[in-house]
Amino acid sequence: MENLILKLLILEQKLNNLSPPEKFFIKLFKKLNWFEKYNIIPQYKIDKYRMDFYFKRLNLDFEIDGDYHVRTPDKVKKDFERDKFMLSKGIKVYRLKWGEFLKNPEKEIDNLTNYIKYLSEKKPFESYKRTEYLKKYI
């Protein structure tokens, strides 16, 4: 019981430290009932990387990139290395640019929804085949 309480306290602390975009998506995912459907874990850590949201059932890392991700070459390189690492573990990465989202939220939500639908409907072999193809070129 103490272990469970400790885990809940740690999760609460993580959720309190979320950015406004992450808080927005928590509300959206709750509204869409995606937490249960896709077993979404906010702030999931693998190795030295922390994912904004891990869709466990889809093996998907959902990242929300602020404007600083685009501007600095160093950050772009770090994101590239991070994505390469995730792909090496078989984890797909979906990056949403927050600036683009603010310009047209409906379009960006539709894009995300369509991608989630695509992943949830396709056969496991198709996912593996696409990941292997991407590994060759990254």
Estimated structural class: alpha+beta
Q: Output the number of helix runs.
A: 8
Largest sheet report: 4 strands, mixed
Share in helix: 55-70%
Strand composition percent: 15-25%
Q: Which ranges are low-confidence, i.e. pLDDT below 50, for 5 or more consecutive residues? A: none
What's the CATH class label?
A: Alpha Beta
* Overall body shape: globular
As an assembly, this protein is: single chain
CATH superfamily: VSR Endonuclease
In the CATH hierarchy, the third-tier topology is known as: Endonuclease, Chain A
Gap from first CA to last CA: 45 Å
Spatial ordering of strands, largest sheet: 1-4-5-6
Tally of strands: 6
Mean pLDDT over the residues: 82
What is the CATH architecture assignment?
3-Layer(aba) Sandwich
In total, the number of domains comes to 1
The topology string of helices and strands comes to HHHEEEEEHHEHHH
